Structure formats: C-alpha cells, structure tokens
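We modelled the chain as a single entity of 147 amino acids. Its sequence is:
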Amino acid sequence: MRLLRSTDLALRVLMRLAVAGEAHPTTRDVAAAMDVPYTHAAKVVAQLQHMGLLTARRGRGGGLALTERGRTASVGALVRAFEGEGDVVDCDGGATTAPCPLSPGCRLRGALRRAQEAFFASLDPVTVSDIVTDPTGPLLLGIPRRP
C-alpha cells in the first residue's frame, strides 16, 4: 500500500514536533526541513491542528507545538484519517472509467479490503512517541534547515 503525500507529511510533521523540545518551528520551517511546498505543509498543519494534535500560534514567540494528544496518537488512526476509508481499488468506476465487469462475482475487492484493514490494524498500537525513539529522534534533530 502506498500512502498519500499528505499522510506521509503529516506523520513526519508530528515526528519532528515530537523531538522539538522547547523549540517551536513555524510551518515555513517545517516545510523547508521536509523539502515540501509551503502550501502543502500549511494544509497538513491545519488538518493536524483541527484534529487537536498540534497547536499553531502566530506572531513573535509563536510556532507549532505537539499536544499531548498528538504525542500519544495512534499511527493507525492518523493513517486512516488522512487516507480515508475508501477501497484500495475502484470497482464501481467513475467519471472517466467504467465499472469493472467482474464486480458481481469478484472476491478480489473483499480480499484487498481485509488486507487494507490488517495494514491499519498493525499500525494501531504504534504511537507518535514510539516512532521517534532512538535512532529516529536524533536523526530528526539533525535534518538541516533548507533556505
């Protein structure tokens, strides 16, 4: 399974904030460190803030900070929230594709759905704090700031 760019960035933002200590990087700082467009980072930060996983303050002394809820958040729940609950394959078709002719008797859709849920379930017990323990935490702190 391949994660959306926004899911990947959300996890990396939370990981970076988990090791930030007293520092409060801005969204621009995070975007530069992760080498992603500011607008993309801002959308992800806004969604994480809406979920109560981080706080964002403007102005002097502002920046991003991880909340306790963000520190203990389940990686599985985060991935579900960003990826959505949709099927891995589009059997019903869409605006530009026809429905799959095998849909009435196909077992693939169910098998892929079970595999997707097993993927999420394997991430459920893992928290943001778990994924920043050594050696990851020091690596995150060592990411050079990009101009």
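As a brief sanity check on the tokenised model: The first helix runs from residue 5 to 18. Residues 111 and 117 are 10 Å apart (CA to CA).
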